[in-house]
Design goal:
The chain is mostly helical. It has 6 helices and 2 strands, in the order ααααββαα. The chain is about 60% helix and about 5% strand.
């Protein structure tokens, strides 16, 4: 059995973004039940030099969209980073999932050999599509989803591994 680039990308992103939306909701519920200012949760971060919860969700959204776009060639919607509420974060996740669901599987044909070029901080690197997905796209996406989970867990939100993995 072989795994297509589509199968390794789109369903994986959708599932994790849906889990992230649920985690955001659990963070909101925790804030309400414990009399916390929502901003206290939304602006929380694990370390002073790391992104806060809002930014982690934004980066998970951006990484999934960019990875799908780079591998499929299907243009991703641009989303300004203006979210400041739990509801706005869920809306962003929903828009991201809508885009991902619109990307046809056939657009990933041959993407394992497609050249993906990343340029950042004056550096430029070319990847083969499969190398990009496995060594950058997926790890970067999961970094932000995991960090969002870690922020909520650190605040005391009663979530665990089962919440991170999502429904079976």
């Amino acid at each position: 059995m072989s795994l297509s680039m589509y199968e390794a990308t789109i369903p994986v992103f959708i599932r994790s973004l849906e889990v992230l939306s649920t985690l955001v909701t659990q963070g909101e519920k925790y804030a309400q039940e414990n009399g916390l200012d929502p901003k206290q949760v939304l602006e929380a971060r694990l370390a002073s030099d790391m992104f806060n919860l809002v930014q982690q969700v934004q980066r998970a959204s951006d990484t999934s969209k960019a990875t799908a776009e780079r591998l499929s060639g299907e243009p991703a919607p641009r989303m300004p980073d203006t979210e400041s509420t739990f509801d706005e974060l869920r809306q962003r996740i929903d828009k991201t999932v809508t885009y991902l669901k619109s990307v046809p599987a056939k657009s990933f044909a041959g993407s394992e050999n497609r050249t993906v070029t990343l340029a950042a901080g004056g550096l430029k690197r070319d990847f083969k599509g499969d190398e990009y997905l496995l060594t950058f796209g997926l790890p970067n996406f999961y970094f932000h989803v995991t960090t969002a989970y870690g922020i909520l867990r650190h605040l005391g939100v009663p979530i665990g591994k089962k919440d991170f993995l999502g429904p079976m």
